[in-house]
Amino acid sequence: MTVLSARGVGKKYKRKWALSNCTLEIEAGHVTGLVGPNGAGKSTLLNIASGMLEPTTGTIEVCGGVPGSGPEQLAKVGYVAQNTPVYTALSVEEHLRFGAKLNPSWDDKLAQHRIERIGLDPKQAAGKLSGGQRAQLALTIGIAKRPELLLLDEPVAALDPLARREFLSDLMEAVAEHGLSVVMSSHLVADLERVCDHVVVLVDSQVRVAGDVEELLASHHRLSGPRRDVDTLPSDQQVISANHTNRQTTVFVRTEAPILDPAWTVGQPSLEDLVLEYMSNPVPTRPALEVLR
Amino acid sequence: MTWLTWRQFRIPALSVFAALAAIGVVLVISGMEMRGETNFSDQEFMYSVTLLVMYALPAVLGVFWGVPMVTRELEAGTHSLVWNQTVTRKQWLTTKLVVGVLTAMVAAGLLSLAVTWWTSPIDALADADPQATTTARMSPVVFDARGIAPIGYAAFAFVLGIAFGIALRRTVTAMAITLVAFVAVMVAVPFLVRPYILPPSEETVTVTDSNIWQIRGNENMDLDEIAVMEPAGSWALTNETVDRAGNTVSPLPASLHPCLPPLPGREAGVAAAPLDRLPDECIAQGFADLGYKQRLVYQPASHFWPLQWIELAFFLALSALVTWFCFRRIRHVS
Question: What's the rounded Cα separation, in Å, for the pair B264 and B32?
Fold first, then answer.
């Protein structure tokens, strides 16, 4: 089941395309990380998915409906924008009241419990909260609304490492407890590694790679050995990048099959390595030749 | 949504109402003393203040209630918080507009009620005095500050503030543009709309030495045009000289020039015949000889309340138009 499906979605601002021809499927029941360099269109995509923005081209379906099309649709999708905006003049308590008044599906027990556990003073004005507390408050509103899908746009960008860790473990807990799907964007891959089981790498608004994190890690290898031509590699190995020195060749390949060539030293990449390889090589060095398999 | 709107709106709303309450108390105390009096020369300052406050209130409501109501959300990014609760933008905007417009109309209505009551003895005198053309209730300066029309101005100023807030997104810019646009409309309506809504009264009067009200000369002190006394409490649109055929005569012909005393310092030899009559008599005689009459077009005092209702309806219709624009525009705000 897909929770988000975009077909050829594009968004043009005046003369510049912030997102163009983006086609993407995100499965339900997962925490999906949306990674990509600045300007890849992550925020624009999330804004379109939440209904904040209208796409200029293409169609997008979120939880089976058009984003922002009505109250039923809004109830299904939660969205915490970049910089986690809250009403500075309203207290924490009033924010929960606001959530309760504006959402028929509001889970007040959950909200109260979370606020208590995070240690927020209900009487405090939201404008006086620290960045981390503010993010936690915004996340609480997002979760207590009990959406099917929660969209988070760089939720931890402004937080220090400790607050970031707390925020993410908190998010994980909520996901495990309520079984909601999450799509969160970030350019900090290390954070995503901790919480995401799916990842989508967006480069120039195109999906470079998407899938289950474990499967991706198992199918990508860094091979190093004596210098050789990339074309001599088995045809089922998709070469993501290749680097040559006078004597040595290092290639980053994707393949489902085991690496049999004894000349290679095989290294297992981390998720960060993998993402960076894809981000720094927007066009595959040599695509896999499927037909010859 | 109403709770949130009121929670955000209560401070600006209460500040304005506190100021209105203070003004109201002053007006009531002073107004009680004025009952039954006939000389209000010592009330001139208060009178000017009431006019000023009446003009300022709708603008203040548009600039300080309307504009920030949306721009504060757009600037702080909280619109993306509230629009992602189970509330559509339409509901969000509807609540803000209903709460804001109704409060603005109540504020303007209460102030206008107090001011209209306070000035009623002064207005009654002015309406009975044909010389008091600028203080009669029908005169544009006073009309805008009496009765029910200010309720319409307040509603219009408020939605104008919301509209510019949505379109421009920045508080200070939107405040400035709202003020300019509102003042422009307020200045344009008495000239371009109000005179023509109800058919004005028209009469052609014979000029006599007792009904000449103003005599205007050009820079050489030659007689240029005259105006006759207008009906008490009316708002004159035209006060012009016409010939037998009904054509406008402006400026007056040279044959009437000797009616004015010559400009001091002119060469003695050229001086006109010595004045044996008062200018008024001379002009009246000249008009009779030439067959000239004076044509008056005016909105009579009896049109005050019908025009007030029309003005209210007109501004509410303008507000509805602006509101329609707001709803169209809000769909594309991100």
Answer: 52
Numbered residues of chain A with Cβ closer than 8 Å to any chain B Cβ: 47, 50-54, 68, 70-71, 74-75, 77-79, 81, 83, 85-90, 94, 97-99, 101-105, 138, 141-142, 145
Q: How long a stretch of residues is chain A?
A: 293
Q: Say if residue B117 is in the same domain as residue B182.
A: yes
Classify residue B244 by its DSSP letter: T
- 3-state secondary structure string across A18-48: EEEEEEEEEECCCEEEEECCCCCCHHHHHHH
* CA separation for the pair B50, B34 (Å, rounded): 15
Cross-chain Cβ contact B80/A52 below 8 Å: yes
Tell me whether residue B250 is exposed, middle or buried, using C-beta atoms within 10 angstroms of its C-beta: 0 to 12, 13 to 18, 19 or more: exposed
Cβ–Cβ of B84/A138 closer than 8 Å? no
The conformation of residue A286, written as its DSSP 8-state character, comes to: B
Per the structure, the complete domain to which residue B248 belongs is given by: 201-299
The ipTM of this complex is 0.86
> Which residue is closest to B7 within chain A, CA to CA?
A90
Q: Are residues B107 and B208 in the same domain?
A: no
SS3 B171: helix
A216-270, pLDDT tens digit by residue?
A: 999 999 999 998 888 888 888 888 888 888 889 898 999 888 888 888 899 989 8
Are B184 and B267 part of one and the same domain? no
Based on the domain organization, do B166 and B313 belong to the same domain? Answer: yes
> Is residue B193 located within the same domain as residue B259?
no
Q: What is the pLDDT of residues B155-197, one digit of tens each?
A: 999 999 999 999 999 999 999 999 999 999 999 999 999 999 9
Neighbours of B182 (CB within 10 A): 23
Q: Per-residue pLDDT averaged across B99-109, rounded?
A: 97
DSSP of B209-243: TTTEEEEEE-TT--EEEEEEPPPTT-EEEEEEEE-
Q: Which domains does chain A have, with CATH numbers?
A: 2-204 (3.40.50.300), 215-280 (no CATH)
Backbone phi, psi, residue A50, to 5°: -85, -10
Helices and strands in chain A, H and E counts: 9, 13
